[in-house]
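Q: What would this chain look like folded?
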Amino acid sequence: MDKKQKIIKLRRAGYSHKEITKKLGISLRDSVKTSRNIQLSKKGKRRYFQKVNGIVKPIKKQNKKLSLAKIRIIGNLLFDGSLYKTIGYHHSLMYINSSIELVKKFCKDIKEIYGIKPSIFIVKGKTTAYRAKYNSKLIFLDLLRYTPSYSTSNKIAKIPKEITNGSKKAKIEFLKTFWDNEGSISIKGRLRGYSNSNKIIKQLFIMHKELGFDAKIYKDRNNYILNLNKNT
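A: My prediction, written as C-alpha coordinates:
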Protein backbone atom coordinates (compact mmCIF):
# COMPACT_ATOMS: atom_id res chain seq x y z
CA MET A 1 0.00 0.00 0.00
CA ASP A 2 1.55 3.31 -1.06
CA LYS A 3 1.50 6.51 1.00
CA LYS A 4 -1.49 7.99 -0.86
CA GLN A 5 -3.60 4.91 -0.15
CA LYS A 6 -2.57 4.98 3.52
CA ILE A 7 -3.67 8.62 3.83
CA ILE A 8 -7.06 7.83 2.29
CA LYS A 9 -7.53 4.77 4.51
CA LEU A 10 -6.72 6.67 7.70
CA ARG A 11 -8.90 9.63 6.74
CA ARG A 12 -11.84 7.34 5.96
CA ALA A 13 -11.32 5.70 9.37
CA GLY A 14 -11.81 9.06 11.11
CA TYR A 15 -8.24 10.24 11.71
CA SER A 16 -7.58 13.99 11.76
CA HIS A 17 -5.05 15.54 9.39
CA LYS A 18 -2.77 16.20 12.35
CA GLU A 19 -2.91 12.54 13.37
CA ILE A 20 -2.20 11.42 9.79
CA THR A 21 0.85 13.67 9.49
CA LYS A 22 2.33 12.26 12.70
CA LYS A 23 1.49 8.66 11.82
CA LEU A 24 2.90 8.75 8.27
CA GLY A 25 5.56 11.43 8.64
CA ILE A 26 4.12 13.65 5.91
CA SER A 27 3.24 17.34 5.64
CA LEU A 28 -0.16 18.71 6.62
CA ARG A 29 -0.51 20.01 3.06
CA ASP A 30 -0.11 16.49 1.60
CA SER A 31 -2.70 15.03 3.97
CA VAL A 32 -5.27 17.72 3.19
CA LYS A 33 -4.64 17.63 -0.56
CA THR A 34 -4.81 13.83 -0.84
CA SER A 35 -7.92 13.28 1.31
CA ARG A 36 -9.85 16.50 0.64
CA ASN A 37 -12.88 14.78 -0.93
CA ILE A 38 -12.76 11.54 1.06
CA GLN A 39 -15.98 10.65 2.91
CA LEU A 40 -15.63 9.27 6.43
CA SER A 41 -17.07 5.81 7.03
CA LYS A 42 -19.81 5.32 9.64
CA LYS A 43 -17.23 4.13 12.17
CA GLY A 44 -14.90 6.89 11.06
CA LYS A 45 -17.48 9.58 11.79
CA ARG A 46 -18.05 8.13 15.24
CA ARG A 47 -14.32 8.14 15.96
CA TYR A 48 -13.82 11.62 14.55
CA PHE A 49 -16.53 13.25 16.65
CA GLN A 50 -15.96 11.27 19.85
CA LYS A 51 -12.19 10.69 20.10
CA VAL A 52 -10.32 13.36 18.16
CA ASN A 53 -9.15 16.19 20.44
CA GLY A 54 -10.64 19.58 19.69
CA ILE A 55 -13.58 18.26 17.67
CA VAL A 56 -17.02 19.36 18.86
CA LYS A 57 -19.73 16.74 18.52
CA PRO A 58 -22.60 18.22 16.44
CA ILE A 59 -26.12 18.58 17.80
CA LYS A 60 -29.49 19.29 16.22
CA LYS A 61 -30.29 22.86 15.21
CA GLN A 62 -32.07 24.59 18.10
CA ASN A 63 -35.38 26.44 17.90
CA LYS A 64 -35.67 29.81 19.62
CA LYS A 65 -38.96 28.82 21.24
CA LEU A 66 -38.71 26.42 24.19
CA SER A 67 -40.45 23.10 23.60
CA LEU A 68 -41.95 21.12 26.49
CA ALA A 69 -39.10 18.59 26.18
CA LYS A 70 -36.48 21.32 26.57
CA ILE A 71 -38.37 22.79 29.52
CA ARG A 72 -38.21 19.37 31.19
CA ILE A 73 -34.46 19.17 30.51
CA ILE A 74 -33.86 22.57 32.14
CA GLY A 75 -36.04 21.70 35.13
CA ASN A 76 -34.47 18.30 35.72
CA LEU A 77 -30.95 19.74 35.55
CA LEU A 78 -31.83 22.55 37.96
CA PHE A 79 -33.41 20.27 40.53
CA ASP A 80 -31.47 17.00 40.31
CA GLY A 81 -28.73 17.54 37.75
CA SER A 82 -25.62 19.56 37.00
CA LEU A 83 -23.53 21.24 34.30
CA TYR A 84 -19.79 21.25 34.84
CA LYS A 85 -16.33 21.19 33.26
CA THR A 86 -14.05 18.25 34.01
CA ILE A 87 -10.30 18.38 34.65
CA GLY A 88 -9.81 17.25 31.06
CA TYR A 89 -11.81 20.25 29.87
CA HIS A 90 -14.84 18.22 28.87
CA HIS A 91 -18.15 20.07 29.04
CA SER A 92 -20.52 17.72 30.83
CA LEU A 93 -24.09 17.49 32.04
CA MET A 94 -25.54 14.89 34.36
CA TYR A 95 -28.92 13.91 35.73
CA ILE A 96 -29.36 11.50 38.62
CA ASN A 97 -32.53 10.05 40.13
CA SER A 98 -33.68 6.95 41.99
CA SER A 99 -36.42 6.49 39.37
CA ILE A 100 -35.16 4.75 36.25
CA GLU A 101 -38.30 5.93 34.43
CA LEU A 102 -37.46 9.60 35.08
CA VAL A 103 -33.88 9.07 33.91
CA LYS A 104 -35.09 7.30 30.75
CA LYS A 105 -37.52 10.16 30.07
CA PHE A 106 -34.69 12.67 30.50
CA CYS A 107 -32.55 10.72 28.02
CA LYS A 108 -35.45 10.60 25.57
CA ASP A 109 -35.82 14.39 25.82
CA ILE A 110 -32.09 14.94 25.21
CA LYS A 111 -32.21 12.62 22.18
CA GLU A 112 -35.26 14.49 20.81
CA ILE A 113 -33.82 17.98 21.33
CA TYR A 114 -30.11 17.46 20.73
CA GLY A 115 -29.80 14.08 18.99
CA ILE A 116 -27.20 12.80 21.48
CA LYS A 117 -27.18 9.47 23.33
CA PRO A 118 -26.06 9.20 26.98
CA SER A 119 -23.98 6.96 29.17
CA ILE A 120 -26.21 5.57 31.94
CA PHE A 121 -24.71 4.32 35.18
CA ILE A 122 -26.20 2.62 38.22
CA VAL A 123 -25.10 4.37 41.41
CA LYS A 124 -25.23 2.10 44.42
CA GLY A 125 -25.32 3.44 47.95
CA LYS A 126 -27.95 3.32 50.68
CA THR A 127 -30.45 3.52 47.84
CA THR A 128 -29.94 2.65 44.19
CA ALA A 129 -29.93 5.61 41.80
CA TYR A 130 -29.50 6.00 38.07
CA ARG A 131 -27.27 8.57 36.39
CA ALA A 132 -27.29 9.81 32.80
CA LYS A 133 -24.17 11.64 31.67
CA TYR A 134 -23.30 13.54 28.47
CA ASN A 135 -20.12 15.21 27.24
CA SER A 136 -21.05 17.97 24.80
CA LYS A 137 -19.74 21.52 24.64
CA LEU A 138 -22.59 22.61 22.33
CA ILE A 139 -25.33 21.31 24.67
CA PHE A 140 -23.47 22.85 27.62
CA LEU A 141 -23.33 26.29 25.98
CA ASP A 142 -26.90 26.09 24.70
CA LEU A 143 -28.31 25.38 28.17
CA LEU A 144 -26.35 28.28 29.69
CA ARG A 145 -28.31 30.64 27.42
CA TYR A 146 -31.28 30.20 29.76
CA THR A 147 -29.71 30.45 33.20
CA PRO A 148 -26.09 31.27 34.15
CA SER A 149 -25.88 28.31 36.57
CA TYR A 150 -27.70 25.03 37.18
CA SER A 151 -26.42 24.78 40.74
CA THR A 152 -29.13 26.06 43.09
CA SER A 153 -26.46 26.69 45.73
CA ASN A 154 -25.08 29.37 43.40
CA LYS A 155 -26.80 32.73 43.91
CA ILE A 156 -26.84 33.45 40.17
CA ALA A 157 -28.97 30.38 39.41
CA LYS A 158 -32.55 31.20 38.43
CA ILE A 159 -35.56 29.87 36.59
CA PRO A 160 -35.36 31.17 33.00
CA LYS A 161 -37.62 34.09 32.09
CA GLU A 162 -38.77 32.09 29.06
CA ILE A 163 -40.51 29.84 31.60
CA THR A 164 -41.61 32.31 34.30
CA ASN A 165 -43.08 34.57 31.60
CA GLY A 166 -44.24 31.65 29.48
CA SER A 167 -47.58 30.01 28.87
CA LYS A 168 -49.62 28.16 31.47
CA LYS A 169 -48.69 24.89 29.78
CA ALA A 170 -44.98 25.73 29.94
CA LYS A 171 -45.18 26.63 33.65
CA ILE A 172 -47.05 23.44 34.52
CA GLU A 173 -44.51 21.30 32.66
CA PHE A 174 -41.64 22.97 34.51
CA LEU A 175 -43.31 22.67 37.92
CA LYS A 176 -43.79 18.95 37.33
CA THR A 177 -40.01 18.56 37.21
CA PHE A 178 -39.72 20.35 40.55
CA TRP A 179 -42.19 18.05 42.25
CA ASP A 180 -40.80 14.92 40.57
CA ASN A 181 -37.30 15.70 41.83
CA GLU A 182 -37.74 17.66 45.05
CA GLY A 183 -41.26 16.88 46.23
CA SER A 184 -42.48 14.70 49.09
CA ILE A 185 -45.84 13.90 50.68
CA SER A 186 -46.33 13.28 54.37
CA ILE A 187 -48.64 10.76 56.06
CA LYS A 188 -51.03 13.65 56.70
CA GLY A 189 -51.08 14.47 53.01
CA ARG A 190 -48.86 17.56 53.12
CA LEU A 191 -47.15 18.21 49.81
CA ARG A 192 -43.73 19.81 50.19
CA GLY A 193 -40.92 20.73 47.81
CA TYR A 194 -37.40 21.69 48.84
CA SER A 195 -34.68 24.03 47.55
CA ASN A 196 -31.53 25.60 48.97
CA SER A 197 -32.09 28.69 46.79
CA ASN A 198 -34.13 31.58 48.18
CA LYS A 199 -34.41 33.11 44.71
CA ILE A 200 -35.69 29.94 43.06
CA ILE A 201 -38.15 29.06 45.83
CA LYS A 202 -39.65 32.55 45.50
CA GLN A 203 -39.95 32.13 41.73
CA LEU A 204 -41.65 28.77 42.27
CA PHE A 205 -44.00 30.34 44.80
CA ILE A 206 -45.05 33.06 42.35
CA MET A 207 -45.60 30.52 39.55
CA HIS A 208 -47.83 28.39 41.79
CA LYS A 209 -49.83 31.46 42.85
CA GLU A 210 -50.30 32.47 39.21
CA LEU A 211 -51.73 29.01 38.52
CA GLY A 212 -54.17 29.28 41.44
CA PHE A 213 -52.41 27.09 44.01
CA ASP A 214 -52.53 27.87 47.74
CA ALA A 215 -48.78 27.92 48.44
CA LYS A 216 -46.64 28.99 51.39
CA ILE A 217 -42.88 29.22 51.97
CA TYR A 218 -41.12 27.99 55.09
CA LYS A 219 -37.47 27.86 56.13
CA ASP A 220 -35.66 25.15 58.06
CA ARG A 221 -31.96 24.90 58.90
CA ASN A 222 -30.81 23.81 55.46
CA ASN A 223 -33.60 24.44 52.97
CA TYR A 224 -36.47 26.58 51.86
CA ILE A 225 -39.72 24.64 51.75
CA LEU A 226 -42.66 25.23 49.43
CA ASN A 227 -45.85 23.87 50.94
CA LEU A 228 -49.05 23.25 49.00
CA ASN A 229 -52.43 23.07 50.69
CA LYS A 230 -53.76 19.55 50.15
CA ASN A 231 -57.18 21.00 49.34
CA THR A 232 -55.82 23.11 46.47
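The chain is about 45% helix and 20% strand.
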